[in-house]
Amino acid sequence: MYSTMAESVFPESTKKFIVALNRAIQRKNVYDIQHLYESEFSYQTSKHYKTSLWPSPQLVSPLVDDDENFMVLYKQLYHRHMYVRKLSSGLSGHFSSFQNYMDLFNIILGLTTEAPEFEIPAAWCWDMIDEFVYQFYAFHSYRSRPDLTEADRKMLKDNPHAWSAQTVIRFLLFFASKGEVGAEAAEEKKSEAGSPHALFETLGVYALIGMLRINSLMGDYTGGIEVLEGVDITGAHEHVSVPAAHASLHYHMAFAYLVTRRYAESVRYSRDGLVYLARNKALIPRTYQQNNIYKMQEQMYGILALATSLVPQGLEEGLAAGVHERFASQMQRMRVMDMEAYSEVFKSVAPKFVPMSLTNDTNAKPDDGLAIQLKVFLKEVESIRRVPDIYSYLKLCTTINVERLTSFLGEESGGLTRRLLYLKHKTQSGSPALEKKGSGKSKSSDIQFVVSEGMVHVSERRQQKQHADFFIREILRYEYVVAEVEASRRVSYF
Asked: What is the pTM of this model?
């Protein structure tokens, strides 16, 4: 049973923090809210509530004169802390958190679109959506446990809509509509005057990223990719300024493209995400999200290892070094099509899938989502096992007869042309941004070739060494050291 220290001891510094946060929210002082949320909340947690709950909402309410808006936000922090510290009290905790999210979202959706009655910073907006999706996963993982009691099963049967995929996705769609982002909202926006406040645009973009994540957790990768079709995410979107949101977007897009066999796009999203995190390392907050960001960073390196081993593509020097540093052994084994190596890397980069095949009144074991996805992926690997060999031969020449290349590879007559077309197709990226500019497809491989009249003509694209990368890495390293020194000097005002 978890400690109840938070209810029996109410430090003065915590009271001052709660009062200051409530005052900042009432005054719509986003700068102060962000400081209190990112710095002081983490400080109070590490000092007083590492192994215990924060003060219960009933104790906090009198301090803020029962402010409804503040209390629903505080409850969100309260339940999030409960999940992060693994202090949840079973199904009742899951249902309590779900009800609070419904109350919170209904209040936010009811705010004035052009001038909301209160505001919260982008980091809090992202954490809210991210935690909502995580608790959706946590609930379905809990309900798949074999040791559920009869009381638990009855509770699940009596609350069929709590944390259901339909309910969760519906609320995320409401946010996208409120912020007028996404394909459907873009059509509606043409006929309406005025534009929503930045709060709702930010929540709308984050809601779509949350939907991408939910679709990925349930194995609907195409649906996840299509969710973001109406949003310009090819560059640094103004509302994806929170490092955790940026990492989640690029990781889940990269993984979705990997398992849908669009390897060039997978490499592009992994590369863009890793470059962003490398250049903004000093901006990553020292909150509970820090570990999540670093984990997704490692997973994106793994996705690069898988995608480039299946369909060889050129990488920048820094990214290639990062992949080699983390997966050198597996890369060597994947070059000879070692299925166990592919399995190891895939398991390390895959998200935690949601067991969706259970009903509330059965003891059946849920389907192992990871095992199912791995089986499909390895089947694809097996079907293209000779593609890396073809790539190796093409690097050795500028022109070669198709029949001679067929004999080198030991292929059947006529089968090589199909594999060459596969290799060419998989190393081209159909970026929506490029299509809008009329540039067609971008080529991600450092080797390009054409097949004409029984001959393969090869041209190699030599990459120039980017000296700027070295200086950028050294500047970032210096900034990180400075940030560490500044953090060690930090003094709390509470």
From this structure: 0.81
